[in-house]
Amino acid sequence: MTSPDSGATTLAPAADTQPLATPIPAAPPHGRGSTLVAESVSAWFGTHKVLERVDLVMAANSVTALIGPSGCGKSTFLRILNRMHELVPSAQLAGRVLLDGEDIYDSARRPIETRRRVGMVFQKPNPFPAMSIYDNVVAGLKLTGVRGVDKDTIVQRSLTRAGLWNEVRNRLRQPGGALSGGQQQRLCIARSLAVDPDVLLMDEPCSALDPTSTRRIEETIGELRDDITIVIVTHNMQQAQRVSDHCAFFLAAENTPGHIVESGPTTEIFGTPRDPRTADYVAGRFG
Ligand SMILES: Nc1ncnc2c1ncn2[C@@H]1O[C@H](COP(=O)(O)OP(=O)(O)OP(=O)(O)O)[C@@H](O)[C@H]1O
Ligand SMILES: [Mg+2]
Questions:
Q1: How do beta strands 229-233 and 63-67 pair?
Q2: Which of 24, 101, 190, 199 is the most exposed place for a label (fewest CB within 10 A)?
Q3: Helical H runs in the chain?
Q4: Domain 36-126+200-282: what homologous superfamily?
Q5: Average pLDDT over residues 168-180
Q6: Distance of CA 13 to the CA centre of its chain
Q7: Residue 100 in contact with residue 34, Cβ under 8 Å?
Q8: How far is 12 from 72, CA to CA, in rounded Å?
């Protein structure tokens, strides 16, 4: 297979559906999020290079926000972090992604295990609309091959952590599609949490939601950060400042693939940015 650049890897689509050997612990341990490290990550779709040598440490038990204008590769980068990028047939990548020091692209690692440890929530809430709230929460268990667990406990625990339990505890058998948009997004968060991930990736999780639902999700993020590592893409600069500890500013130009201009503590990215392009972006002067 040809690579558009030296060092690029053409990824095979994942066909891994074997059950997991690792059982889910009875209760989530606290303060055990994982550190994700991207080392010189570049990405292509066909011959189109969309990310160039991205280096970023996403520290355990913290929230990292990815910001930058449309098309600069934020979602692509996020999907690389849980091996969803390779599901696109033309997708290629170079570099390494380390989860607690181990390369998630190591040939001995199964994509399904990485996707269980690194969950993802998307822009548009995507519950299974006809499926009950209860079955939505446990749907991921089956998909990732987890067996032999107490589903009732997992449903209650996941919905509680997602901040939805009190609103749905008496209607768990109603369809997920009957919930409001904000509730559906929290249901999707609960579905991700059910498989007990170490990291949660969130791609503009509030962009389809009203301000009240947005605030509710931000509260949930604030509660989850104690035992999960969160990476969130947002176009909302106020949100980035409210929820994140660290921030990475991505930028792409016509002949320059997406790359990180600057990253660091959120207070510094917004308060004392080093690069004038960062200053202009966070001040809303472009993008
Ligand atoms: N499946 C795909 N096939 C081909 N090109 C793609 C695909 N997905 C994304 N791209 C291209 O990769 C580049 C980065 O896209 P990406 O969606 O990662 O940007 P983004 O920063 O998330 O943008 P936005 O803020 O609009 O969501 C863009 O040029 C886009 O057209
Ligand atoms: Mg995107």
A1: parallel
A2: 101
A3: 74-80, 111-117, 133-143, 151-161, 165-168, 181-193, 211-224, 237-243, 266-271, 276-282
A4: P-loop containing nucleotide triphosphate hydrolases (3.40.50.300)
A5: 97
A6: 20
A7: yes
A8: 24
Q: Which of 54, 75, 261 to mutate to test the pocket of ligand 1 (most atoms within 8 A of CB)?
A: 75
Domain parsing of the chain, residue ranges: 36-126+200-282
Q: Is the CB of 73 under 6 A from ligand 1?
A: yes
Please enumerate in sequence order all residues whose Cβ is within 8 A of that of 62, keeping only pairs 6 or more positions apart, or say none: 33, 225, 229, 230, 245, 246
Per-residue pLDDT at 178 exceeds 90:
yes
Q: How many CB atoms lie within 10 A of CB 32?
A: 14
For the segment 219-227, the average pLDDT, to the nearest whole number, is 92
Pairing of the two strands 63-67 and 246-253: parallel
pLDDT band at 3 (very low <50, low <70, confident <90, very high): very low
The closest-lying atom of ligand 1 relative to the alpha carbon of residue 78 is: 18
Q: Whose CA is nearest to atom 31 of ligand 1?
A: 71
CA of 160 to the centre of ligand 2 (A): 28
Residue 203: band (very low, low, confident or very high) from pLDDT cuts 50, 70, 90: very high
Specify whether the CB–CB gap between 63 and 221 falls below 8 A: yes
Distance CA 267, CA 39 (A): 24
This prediction's pTM: 0.89
Residue 274's H or E segment, with its range, is none
Cα–Cα distance for residue pair 244/157, rounded to 1 Å: 24
